[in-house]
């Protein structure tokens, strides 16, 4: 039997939809194009890392290790960023400015991948695996720079403070300005 309370609550409350999507693109932080670019960044950095791992001997191991670190970092963190931005998980993480994080990370990775690729290209054993890793390093670098350029073109620099209000002292309401100007001599 339905009580009076059941009738009231059943007619006034709405249940939350149960068919929540886990993959949501586009969002305010990730467009379809940016999602595709991030997927290509993940793929190229993964291939660069895997091919570099296949290298069995190195004549100068410092550049190889630097390239390994950068390619692995780019692969893992770009994949993490892609997962966070393409799912509702980004709402549960305590980060308020995803555009600033994405912008800073993308330019940082682009510069690091560029440096690691140059250093590894300049000092390697000349094997086909090393050259292939360098090629994918440069390809990943290009995609990171494309991502940065697209972000800059669409949204500008998110770290800059944008003021929408005038900064002069006379911007207050008219009665307040009159009170200040009369010095209480009314």
UniProtKB/TrEMBL annotation:
Subcellular location: Membrane
Chain segments annotated as transmembrane: 64-89, 101-121, 133-152
Pfam families, per database record: MARVEL
Coiled coil: none
GO CC aspect terms: membrane
Keywords from the named record: Membrane, Transmembrane, Transmembrane helix
Topology class, membrane: Multi-pass membrane protein
Location of region: Disordered: 162-186
Identification of the protein by name: MARVEL domain-containing protein
Residue ranges occupied by any MARVEL domain in the UniProt entry: 29-156
């Amino acid at each position: 039997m339905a009580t009076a309370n059941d009738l009231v609550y059943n007619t006034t409350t709405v249940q939350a939809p149960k068919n929540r999507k886990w993959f949501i693109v586009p969002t305010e932080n990730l467009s379809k194009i940016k999602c595709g670019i991030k997927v290509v960044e993940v793929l190229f950095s993964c291939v660069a890392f895997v091919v570099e791992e296949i290298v069995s001997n190195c004549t100068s191991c410092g550049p190889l290790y630097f390239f390994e670190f950068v390619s692995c970092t780019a692969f893992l963190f770009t994949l993490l960023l892609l997962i966070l931005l393409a799912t509702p998980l980004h709402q549960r993480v305590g980060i308020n400015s995803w555009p600033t994080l994405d912008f800073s990370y993308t330019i940082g990775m682009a510069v690091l991948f560029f440096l690691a690729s140059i250093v590894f290209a300049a000092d390697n054993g000349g094997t086909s695996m090393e050259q292939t890793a360098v090629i994918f390093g440069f390809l990943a670098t290009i995609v990171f720079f494309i991502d940065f350029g697209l972000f800059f073109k669409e949204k500008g620099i998110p770290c800059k403070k944008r003021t929408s209000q005038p900064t002069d002292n006379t911007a207050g309401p008219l009665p307040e300005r009159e009170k200040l100007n009369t010095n209480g001599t009314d």
